Automatic annotation (TrEMBL):
Catalysed transformations (reactions): L-leucine + 2-oxoglutarate = 4-methyl-2-oxopentanoate + L-glutamate; L-isoleucine + 2-oxoglutarate = (S)-3-methyl-2-oxopentanoate + L-glutamate; L-valine + 2-oxoglutarate = 3-methyl-2-oxobutanoate + L-glutamate
Gene name per UniProt: LOC108806231
Record PTM N6-(pyridoxal phosphate)lysine, positions in chain: K263
Organism: Raphanus sativus (Radish)
Superkingdom as given in the UniProt entry: Eukaryota
Protein's name according to its UniProt entry: Branched-chain-amino-acid aminotransferase
InterPro entries xref list: Aminotrans_IV (IPR001544), Aminotrans_IV_CS (IPR018300), Aminotransferase-like (IPR036038), B_amino_transII (IPR005786), BCAT-like_C (IPR043132), BCAT-like_N (IPR043131), BCAT_family (IPR033939)
Length: 417
């Protein structure tokens, strides 16, 4: 059933043949055909093949993945890349494969394929480059302690959020099933880059972008859905130590009616200025206030915010100007199951003054304790240089579940092996 490798014409064959890799290995180390999600019509099959070409079937179609990089020793399913897993930080490490799926002019995403990770080629007139028509997601995969099984966390939530964002940005989006199958295929193809248990996670970055050429302001005529991955450690340089925030009083991240509530790329470009200024002054990040009253907490550049007072947990409610974080939502559910009262409401900046604990949540940051917040020159500190008791409890319950260290009573994890 093998046929010529299909490469999308607008994506260059500019593969990175792992010059920086510490070792080479058989790219798909699956000894038998694997079918992910047998109940789904979009089964993904990755077959061991002596000719180094694997087949990947999405939505009933079959395309061939490009597996022509240097192959050498065969590997077991528990093999991991030979890198310094104790110092991975949060920077891009090129991995083996990325997933690419194009959208035709009818707005339907069809056959997707795994390609060698590498640069892509787009028109200078692409909608994403000229008019910012782009969305992204952030997800993580953890290797379980058995070294073999890998857990995804609520991937359907990211798929749904991307679909909601796409609607706001006038873009077609992959179905939830297409999205989840693509993520699974990408993680499995890059399995050796999932850190050993306890050493971090594989960060998954799904992108949706207008790659068709457009000159006048209009939605792009074509779209690309792409998933790449990178092993990561802690997001903040502080590690799991508390971060120091400054309340931003000049710049705003979002406006009512704007795009602050969707994960569009422009939201992140817009915060770079304030973030750079804050970092140059020694702060970890910026806490934004609402742009109308300049009084209510919104979010930090890369994560949502929570405060704790007398064991009641409060967080700004979702009303279009903050990102509906999946970690935020999960922490709210975890907190309620742990018996805490959680309020989603307007939280004033003044409430920071007498909060017992403040913490941030996000896929990248997980649960990050806040050690201090500076507002109008006044600094309020929390805790003793570590997690407060409430945020520590929530962090432990959530991460134990994500890493497969505790039973998943919430049914949030998806196992890949
Ligand atoms: C994430 O938490 O995954 C995000 O998308 C935030 C990003 C700025 C790293």
């Amino acid at each position: 059933m093998e046929r010529a490798t299909t490469i999308s014409p607008s994506l260059s064959q500019n593969y990175l043949l792992c010059p920086s890799r510490a070792f080479t290995t058989r790219l798909h180390s699956f000894s038998t055909t694997r079918s992910l999600s047998p109940s789904s019509s979009s089964s993904i099959k990755v077959q061991h093949s002596s000719s180094s070409v694997s087949s990947c079937s999405i939505n009933g179609g079959t395309s061939l993945t490009r597996c022509n990089a240097v192959l050498s020793n065969s590997s077991s399913s528990t093999e991991v890349a030979d890198i310094d897993w104790d110092n991975i930080g949060f920077g891009l490490k090129p991995t083996d494969y990325m997933y690419v799926m194009k959208c035709n002019l009818n707005g339907e995403f069809s056959e997707g394929e795994l390609q060698r990770f590498g640069n892509i080629e787009v028109s200078p007139s692409a909608g994403v480059l000229n008019y910012g028509q782009g969305l992204f997601e952030g997800m993580k995969a953890y290797r379980k302690q058995d070294g073999k099984n890998i857990l995804l966390f609520r991937p359907q939530e990211n798929a749904t959020r991307m679909r909601n964002g796409a609607e706001r940005m006038c873009m077609p989006a992959p179905s939830v099933d297409q999205f989840v199958q693509a993520v699974k295929a990408t993680v499995l193809a890059n399995k050796r880059w999932v850190p050993p248990a306890g050493k971090g996670s594989l960060y998954i970055r799904p992108l949706l972008m207008g790659t068709g050429a457009v000159l006048g302001l209009a939605p792009a005529p074509e779209y690309t859905f792409l998933v790449y991955v990178s092993p990561v450690g802690n997001y903040f340089k502080e590690g799991v130590a508390p971060i120091n925030l400054i309340v931003e009083s000049e710049f705003h991240r979002a406006t009512p009616g704007g795009t602050g509530g969707v994960k569009t790329i422009g939201n992140y470009a817009a915060v770079l200025k304030a973030q750079s200024i804050a970092k140059s002054k020694g702060y970890s990040d910026v806490l934004y206030l609402d742009c109308v009253y300049k009084r209510y907490l919104e979010e930090v550049s890369s994560c949502n915010i929570f405060i704790v007072k007398d064991n009641v947990i409060s967080t700004p409610e979702i009303k279009g100007t903050i990102l509906p974080g999946i970690t935020r939502k999960s922490i709210i559910d975890v907190a309620r199951t742990q018996g805490f009262k959680v309020e989603e409401r307007d939280v004033t900046v003044d409430e920071l003054l007498d909060a017992d604990e403040v913490f941030c949540t996000g896929t990248a940051v997980v649960v990050s304790p806040v050690g201090s917040i500076t507002h109008k020159g006044k600094r309020v500190s929390y805790g003793e240089g570590s997690f407060g008791p409430v945020s520590e409890k929530l962090y432990t319950v959530l991460t134990s579940l994500q890493m497969g260290l505790s039973e998943d009573n919430m049914n949030w994890t998806v196992n890949l092996s």
